[in-house]
Amino acid sequence: MRRIHVNRLGVWAAVILSATGLAAADVRISSYGYNTSMTVNAPNQFSVTVENLGPDPASGISLKATLPDGAELVPSAGCTAAANLVTCTLPNLATGRSTRQTVHFIPRNVAKARVEFEVQSSDDNNPANNSAGYDANIFPQNVLEVRAGSANPALREASKGQKNLPVLQFTLTNKTEFPAIFDDVDQKTPVHVNRIFLKASGTGHDAKDLTAVRLYEDANANGRVDAGERLVQTLVFPIDDGTLMLEGPSLYPDSPESRQVTYLVTYDLDDQVRPGTLGALVAGMGLGLLALGFLGGPAQRRRRPLWWLMVLTVLTLGACTQPATSQPEPTAFTYGLRVTVVETDSAFNLLEGTLPISGATLTVAR
Ligand SMILES: [Ca+2]
Ligand SMILES: [Ca+2]
Ligand SMILES: [Ca+2]
Question: How far apart are CA 49 and CA 32, in angstroms?
């Protein structure tokens, strides 16, 4: 009986103290964060940290977030939404403790988003620090299209010693769309292409036989090098079937010309051609085995010991067999090239198009 009496007294004391403001908690919004590149029509988020400065524990805590017009709410756990108002129930907070709440939304028709937050608690006795508002710029969704050029060179024969042979044409286009909400704001960012990777293939030795690999801007997009067209880079393959890294352009949204570039890659062939690292044996049987071993499904992977045995057999046979007697000397070598990777400076850029983009395969007689 006595204990009940004390508890009742405590409850009444708390109610009286809270009502008079003599003792209670002080919840506040202490910090916030948001994803730095908010894009239109994509999920974005604001987070706020709510802290209890005490001296008493805080309960009955709720957080209200008001989103701007043109933003679509995305439901979050522990929150309810009505129109553009989100209300979240937060856990009780002991003195000195804090909790973080994230509000998700999709900006549909707004270029500058202001989100207003307000925290409330039945124990709070200091409303001065309960509100905060934060601004964020919304950016267009950048889209980069990568595709083969309209005059991408076809498979053909070439001769030793030929220079500036077109082998690959491809086009990069900034296809970002700008809804009317961006008409009056300076948020039309370019697409910066950081790096483009080109990969060589074929039976010829790309490092020894290609004395220059040139990247031109094919201004008239005709698949040939014309007078006045800009030479961007000259490179050589470090190894056979190697990869080259090209510096990419920045594609600005200001005009159709600045939005698009068409590149042409050309080869200079050496005066003699040589076999690449893939010998005739490996190029034939070995490649088939490699493909079986690496590309096979789970069933093939379970048979990997058998695959290794076959590879060893092939390699042993290859080592013991005189090429002159078992394999006819190849009369020509091939040189292929493709765009394998296009890297932009932001993970938020969308890449359209299908990679790899294959150019011509040159066949060069010995
Ligand atoms: Ca407060
Ligand atoms: Ca090669
Ligand atoms: Ca041209």
Answer: 6
